[in-house]
Specification:
Length: 448
């Protein structure tokens, strides 16, 4: 008993270090305020392009777009082209093609960049583009991209003219002033302020990544967009860049854009939602809740990590109890044993509410997506866990478009076809020790 009492304070100190709120220094507050004042001038100019905004939304999307409008000050934005990419090789080849065609600038942020395989082809494409005079900026998370920062590529790319920033740099002294587990989790590629990519994919060749983990290849989803939405994503990128470096890189003023109004997709509306200590609090959480409560027919969720807040958990259960078809697709095998067991603690109540839980068998399903009534889609970097919802720098796209919804549905149904439906009866007779582990890891969910 004495030894346990001695250990508990130590555990408490460790937990406090990891779950305390992010600390903002006065200098950071001043810089953040300064950046927002400049960004607001840019956005005011951007709003003058009346034709690029979609003033009407579908019934299922209207509540969420109203939330975004009041929280972020913008209506949904039309786009010229919207493409879903599910194959890694196809995504990389498309990206490299766009990089070689770039005329002015390329901005990139990733949580993980791991050298090797096709990731090196992207590095070489960036190097050649920088050498021909394209402004190239690369921002990578310090923790996620450790292998990159220890590799030869840092000096090679810098010597070619590429600017590289190690975001949220790991430093033992940070333990005493802020959360050391705060991470830059966005995945964004911007080319010429016109083409943008985002989604769940890191710059990692899945055939080489975490092979020893025994979870199979990672399965991801990316979106490629052409059009003025790149401007608002550019503002987000410039904000993160300036907070890390102190250097301003606002996108070009909108009146210099060559927006092809004739090719803007009709009945198509996109919002960008981002999160992190510098951005409006709880927007992603409120957006997820609003989207789920808007469902009337079908709700499909894919997430690699299922540790939702109480509010989101009850919203999902309520949807199923209203008679809405609710499906959650998660990987059977996970790279995190903590998340695996914590996720399992939610299964019983979800199954009891009528939620269908599918365990994906063909690798680690890393796609983060929510589809409501085949019309409203949320796709991005946000996992359904506490870290993504409350802590990390994240981004998600909200898309109100029927054809895009149908395309996303076909991908999700393919995931379901490669999954096993969790049997409610068999789950109810799992071992007593499994239940203990589930509850134990559930208590640690603020760390997950």
């Amino acid at each position: 008993m004495v030894s346990i009492m001695c250990i508990l304070p130590i555990i408490g100190i460790i937990l406090c270090i990891f779950i305390k709120k992010y600390y903002f220094k006065k200098k950071q507050f001043k810089l953040a305020k300064k950046i927002w004042s400049k960004a607001n001038i840019w956005l005011t100019n951007f709003k003058s392009f009346d034709d690029i905004f979609e003033k009407k939304n579908s019934k299922v999307a209207s509540a969420l777009f109203q939330l975004c409008k009041h929280r972020q000050g913008l209506l949904g934005i039309k786009c010229n082209k919207l493409t879903l990419l599910t194959n890694f090789t196809e995504t990389i080849n498309t990206l490299i093609h766009d990089i070689y065609l770039a005329k002015n600038n390329i901005e990139i942020v990733f949580y993980i960049w791991k050298p090797g395989g096709l990731a090196d082809d992207v590095a070489n494409a960036l190097i050649l583009s920088a050498k021909r005079g394209i402004y190239c900026r690369l921002m990578l998370d310090s923790s996620g991209s450790t292998d990159f920062f220890r590799s030869k590529w840092v000096n090679i790319m810098k010597n070619s003219g590429i600017q590289i920033v190690e975001a949220l740099k790991i430093n033992i002294l940070r333990i005493f002033i802020d959360r050391i587990d705060l991470r830059q989790h966005k995945k964004i590629i911007l080319i010429d302020n016109h083409i943008t990519y985002t989604g769940s994919m890191n710059l990692v060749d899945p055939s080489l990544f975490k092979k020893s983990a025994g979870v199979g290849q990672w399965i991801d989803l990316m979106i490629r967009i052409e059009g003025p939405i790149a401007g608002t994503i550019g503002i987000i990128y410039s904000y993160d860049w300036e907070m890390e470096t102190g250097k301003q890189i606002l996108p070009k003023i909108p009146n210099k854009y060559k927006i092809n109004l004739n090719t803007l997709i009709k009945n198509n509306s996109i919002q960008v939602i981002t999160s992190g200590p510098y951005f409006p609090k709880d927007t992603i959480h409120k957006a997820l809740l609003t989207a789920i409560y808007s469902a009337t027919k079908e709700l499909i969720i894919t997430t690699p990590y299922l540790v939702p807040s109480n509010d989101l958990f009850y919203a999902i259960c309520t949807a199923a109890q209203k008679g809405i078809s609710v499906s959650i697709i998660i990987p059977r095998y996970n790279d995190s044993i903590f998340v695996k067991w914590a996720s399992r603690s939610f299964y019983s109540e979800l199954l009891e509410a009528g939620v269908k839980i599918y365990l994906f068998e063909k690798g680690l399903l890393h796609t983060k997506s929510i589809l409501i009534d085949h019309q409203l889609s949320l796709v991005g970097t946000v996992n359904l866990d506490m870290r993504s919802i409350w802590l990390n720098f994240e981004i998600t796209l909200v898309i109100d478009n029927n054809q895009f919804g149908k395309n996303l549905a076909s991908i999700q149904y393919e995931y379901i076809n490669n999954s096993t439906l969790l049997d409610k009866r068999l789950w109810s007779i799992r071992s007593y020790w499994n239940r203990i582990l589930e509850n134990l890891f559930y208590c640690l969910n603020p760390l997950l």
